[in-house]
Design brief:
eight-stranded mixed β-sheet; alpha/beta; about 15% strand; Aspartate Aminotransferase, domain 1; Aspartate Aminotransferase, domain 2; about 350 residues; 10 helices; 2 domains; globular; three-stranded antiparallel β-sheet
């Protein structure tokens, strides 16, 4: 069987027989409004490196007392993180990351020629005492709430303590909030301060992954200007059609987002209860669309499920936790039920021999 070394093995794979609990890509459609501009769309020239003005202006509605000058529109949130880290570059600097982490974080830090270091989480929750010790001497810290891969939402008290501590220490906070609209337990808390750099995307909230529209929001305009300068030389403007479609998405009533969140919550309940019935140890997600059960020999689980049962799951080791497996529930309930059936069959056979 072909060795599966990372998520790139699975990205883009699809078939009628395949059940994919892998990619964090919503299967729900974007709002219909984003397509209505297509019959008359005729723009073709380069756009502003910082992003189209009307989209940046529309984004200010989500961030109190913000201005369009404080945003840069990027090729997804991944480019926003990449550009932000390069704008903060300092030789030998340390960037503090959560563990488990989104699988690209350590790579992007290393590509920016800085050093990733890690703070602990307990069942997906930040261990603040550990964080407090490790943040000292770091250039920046990444906070991801709601989290990929854990599905956890950080406690308000913890976020406010981090907000205060990092301000006192002069440490940048890079707040990855791509799942901020997919929360089941409370409203999102926007970490505040001039030292906070917020990343977001249209990929999850509006199911627009392939459009690659993300953004950076920062109150520090010097950082914004450095990001624009770097972006000028690496990717220039972000896709202008995608930006105009994203602009249309900003007009969609809040009910659209709320209705999708209800779907995610229903699926969360289905897969969580199904995995508990299988005897797996996991916590109940509070946001995003992932469960992260503990399983023995995750590498073999990932390989067996794909090659023998036509199921895609992601190895927890790719996220910094080699004791778990990540399942995305961004697929319809019928497929979740069938996928759980296959997992149950696997656990009754090959898994016993792991």
């Amino acid at each position: 069987m072909q060795e599966i070394k990372g998520p790139s093995f699975f990205i883009g794979k699809d078939s009628e027989e395949l059940i994919s609990f892998g990619s964090g890509q919503p299967d729900l459609p974007p709002p219909e409004e984003v397509y209505q501009i297509l019959p008359t769309y005729r723009d073709f020239k380069y756009g502003l490196i910082q992003g189209q003005e009307r989209l940046r202006q529309a984004l200010t509605a989500q961030y109190p007392k913000s201005s369009k000058e404080q945003f840069v529109v990027t090729n997804g949130a991944s480019e926003a993180l990449d550009l932000t880290l390069r704008a903060l570059f300092e030789p030998g600097a340390k960037i503090l990351l959560p563990t488990p982490y989104y699988y690209s974080y350590p790579y992007i830090v290393k590509f920016a020629h800085m050093e990733p270091v890690y703070y602990e989480q307990d069942k997906g929750k930040i261990v603040f005492d550990d964080f407090k010790q490790k943040v000292k001497g770091c250039k920046a810290v990444v906070i991801n709430s709601p989290s990929n891969p854990t599905g956890t939402v950080q406690n308000l008290e913890t976020l406010k303590k981090i907000e205060k501590l990092t301000k006192e220490l002069g440490v940048w906070v890079i707040s990855d909030e791509v799942y901020k609209d997919l929360i089941y337990v409370r409203e999102n808390y926007l970490i505040k301060g001039k030292h906070v750099l917020t990343l977001n995307s249209f990929s999850k909230t509006y199911a627009m992954c392939g459009f690659r529209i993300g953004y950076l929001y920062a109150r520090d305009v010097d950082v914004i200007n450095r990001v624009i300068e770097i972006k000028t030389h690496v990717s220039m403007n972000t896709n202008i059609l995608g930006q105009d479609m994203a602009f249309e998405a900003t007009k969609v009533p809040r009910e659209f987002i709320d209705s999708q969140t209800k779907v995610w919550k229903s699926r969360r309940n289905l897969i969580y209860e199904g995995m508990k019935d299988l005897g797996l140890d996991l916590w109940k997600p509070e946001g995003a669309f992932y469960v992260f059960p503990e399983m023995k020999n995750p590498s073999k689980v990932v390989s067996d499920l794909y090659h023998l049962y036509n199921i895609i799951v992601y190895n927890g080791a790719w996220f910094g936790d080699p004791t778990r497996v990540r399942f995305s529930y961004a697929l319809d309930e019928e497929k979740i039920v069938e996928g759980l059936r296959r997992v149950k069959e696997y656990m009754g056979k090959e898994y016993k021999e792991n």
